[in-house]
Amino acid sequence: MSHAEFPFKASPIHVSEEVLNDLNRRLTSVRWPLDAGNEDGYYGVRRDELKALVDYWIHEFDWRKSEQAINAYEHYQVQVNGVPVHFMRKPGVGPNPVPLILSHGWPWTFWHWSKVVDPLADPRAHGGDPADAFDVIVPSLPGFGFSAPLPDHPDMNFWKMADLWHTLMTDMLGYEKYAAAGCDVGALVTGQLGHKYGAELYGIHIGSALKLDFFNGERAWDYAGGRPIPEDLPEEIRNQLLELDRRFASHLAVHVLDPGTLAYGLSDSPVGMLAWILERWIKWSDNKGSIEQVFSKDDLLTHATIFWVNNAIETSMRVYANNNRYPWEPSHSRQPVIEAPTGITFVGYENPPGVTTDQRVEHFLKTDRAAWYNHVNITAHEEGGHFIPWEVPELWVQDLRRTFHGRR
């Protein structure tokens, strides 16, 4: 599909001065908590660390510079079955680019894909084979980023997003067949595409391999699933297990049980919003103890501003509650559940307790999750954390290309 054939008119991203001025006013009038006795971060994000980032937000961060970088790509605003959808596009450069839709996670934005878009779309310019080119479509999930506000769809969840993506790619953009990839929540969206629409996909590539019913059930908010810690665990593995619980427990519990209550604070205070998502960026990335190993201050604040200017924190968090409230149901009873050929990228920072990277693939194949997928390419890397295409973009691109090589 050429530029001339693309069915929509580009709409560059632009945030009004009024919105940016309001943000600045709120940042400069914050009332800080004491944060006494939290030098070790035991109680959460440390005030001095957050205050330094907020001061940078006020005095040094330049949204217009970020906006300019974002607008180096094509952007579109469309309605898909009445749902507002923003997407970024980079046309493929090669003999037969495959359409590829990339689905992000939480607290991600579409911009977390920015490091892989160019090499996926134009392999030759990045030392690759132009035969591996993709026509890259990068939407903001409904209720996230510029796919907001979402007043008429308070029930949005991952499997409903998959239906929207399929409508977007086939009915609206006219692709007869396409590829899909995703991480975190986006991996569930992508997995659902591979389940419900597998025959119309070249395949999928994901950064995790959860069962699609992960959020089903009465205690989906309990990361540990109510399981006690075995008494005979070696201390090192026990500590890893507790660290993993602590990494995700509050996030899942609040987002599944009462995200709307938290949203009153986070929608009103950009500092409160930044604190909540910064903690996840810190705890979930493989940053070796320094977040700026992974995200510069400008990176952090670009993503945070995208959340803030669209008042999207409430609807982004509510997806978790809706994944549980409106549980996933299978579209067919065939096995594997996800029939589309599936590639998986695992990263060392998310290794299960007691499992090393060189054991990761074998360990996965022995779990009950493996049988859900028609897996054709599984790779485990020592480096990288939760934000895979941002943290290890070259490895993600290599893995994804391998998944789709020979499948076009």
From TrEMBL:
The keyword Hydrolase applies. Keywords: Aromatic hydrocarbons catabolism, Hydrolase. Residues 12-112 form the Epoxide hydrolase N-terminal domain. SUPFAM superfamilies: alpha/beta-Hydrolases. Pfam families: EHN. Belongs to the peptidase S33 family. This is Multidrug MFS transporter. It comes from Paenibacillus cineris. The lineage of its organism: Bacteria, Bacillati, Bacillota, Bacilli, Bacillales.
